[in-house]
Each structure stands twice: as C-alpha cells, then as structure tokens.
UniProtKB/TrEMBL annotation:
Keywords: DNA-binding, Transcription, Transcription regulation. SMART domains: HTH_ARAC (SM00342). Residues 122-222 form the HTH araC/xylS-type domain. This is Helix-turn-helix domain-containing protein. GO terms for molecular function: DNA-binding transcription factor activity; sequence-specific DNA binding. InterPro entries: AraC_XylS_family_regulators, HTH_AraC. It comes from Leucobacter chromiisoli.
Length: 222
C-alpha cells in the first residue's frame, strides 16, 4: 500500500508504481514480500516529468507490455557486479533503463486520462524524449501517440512558440551534445553518435547543432 496525501494506492503481486521522492508518501505491507525498487534522479526522466501527477504517485497499468521486461532487466542487473561492466557498456545499460522508465511513465500517464487540454503538449514532448533515437519518428506518429490530430498538435506547439520538428531537433541535439562532451564515448565516431540519437549522418547533426547556435560536433567533442 502506498499512501501519499489524499491518494492511497493498493498494490498486489506483480503491480508497479512510480513514486516521486519529494512526495510525502508512506509504503507499507501487511505481509512478507519482495520489493524491487529502481531509484533514479528525477532529472533522468527529462521532459517526461511534465506528465507526472500532482500527488507524486502514478500506477503502472498491469497490461503494460514494458512492465515485465523492465522488471526482468532490473532484476538481472542486481545479479551482476558493477566491476564487471565497462564504462562503455554502463552507458548503454543506463540508457536502456532510462528509455524503459520513460516509456512506462508515459504509458501510465496516458492511461490515467488526465484532461487533454492540460497534457497534450507535455505528452507530445514525452513521446519525443522517449522515441527521439528512432530515425523514423515523425510528427504524424507523435500525434497518433498522443491521440490527437496532427493539425491540433501543431496548434499546441505554435501556442508555445515552437514546432514539433524544432523540439525533436532540440532533444536529439541535446543528447548528442552530452555524448560528445563525455570522454567515456570517445570510442564512438561523430557519425555513430549522430545515428544513435536519431540523425541520419554526422553532417545532419552538424547542421542541427548550427541551427541552435552550437559549434560543430568536432569542436564540442572532448
């Protein structure tokens, strides 16, 4: 059972929930049980945080296709030793877990059916954050994920002085910038980093960085 303010959430075997660390919550159980906890800085979730409920508690739907693999993946990581994982491998492990958690939270938030007028834009940003590495991600696909027409979604972005394409570029560039500035990924070429974050090539990344006022990838690389 999770109690957080006016919200009480009863969990049974196989259930899962997100709990914001800043929420005044209490976790208790009347029987002996095994609890798997994944603690991450809230910043890891990036713009997906925008869809977090005010109570700080969000149940994950049991029918979520991501829940079993996330739990299995996290449990498997507990079996290994941190010394057995190289810095390079560690990045991909963390990246995979981060994207899984983003997907879980996004799916849970959509299932909660919060009024659309309050969540259309943050949900769309969440989709971009979670799927930006997919080079086939389009504005149409994002609109379908948010369950709104493309025209309506474009209108929501215009209200905030931006566009879907611009936000997708922003997220990809920011992720590439972080990787270029981290010596752990010096083994990856600029083209590989560009493709990893969703661009088609190193030159595409360079153009995108120039468009947002950043220097060339080679100048950012440590």
């Amino acid at each position: 059972m999770i109690d957080s303010g006016d919200v009480s959430l009863e969990l049974t075997a196989g259930d899962a929930a997100f709990l914001l660390s800043s929420a005044a919550g209490e976790l208790r159980s009347g029987i002996a049980c095994e609890l798997l906890t994944i603690a991450v800085p809230v910043e890891v979730l990036g713009d997906v945080r925008a869809v977090w409920p005010a109570s700080g508690v969000q149940r994950v739907p049991r029918e979520s296709m991501l829940l079993p693999p996330v739990a299995a993946f996290a449990a498997r990581m507990l079996e290994g030793s941190a010394n057995e994982v190289s810095g390079f491998t560690s990045y991909y492990v963390e990246r995979l877990l981060q994207e899984m958690l983003q997907g879980l939270l996004l799916g849970a938030s959509r299932a909660a059916r919060v009024p659309q007028t309050q969540t259309t834009f943050p949900l769309a940003i969440s989709v971009i954050v979670a799927q930006h590495s997919d080079p086939e991600l389009t504005a149409v696909a994002i609109a379908e994920e948010v369950n709104i027409s493309l025209r309506q979604l474009e209108r929501e972005f215009r209200k905030r002085g931006t566009t879907i394409r611009r936000e997708l570029r922003r997220v990809r560039v920011e992720q590439a910038r972080k990787m270029l500035g981290d010596p752990d990924y010096a083994g990856l070429s600029i083209t590989q980093i560009a493709q990893f974050v969703g661009f088609s090539s190193g030159s595409s990344l360079a153009r995108a960085m120039s468009a947002v006022g950043l220097p060339a990838p080679s100048a950012v690389r440590v």
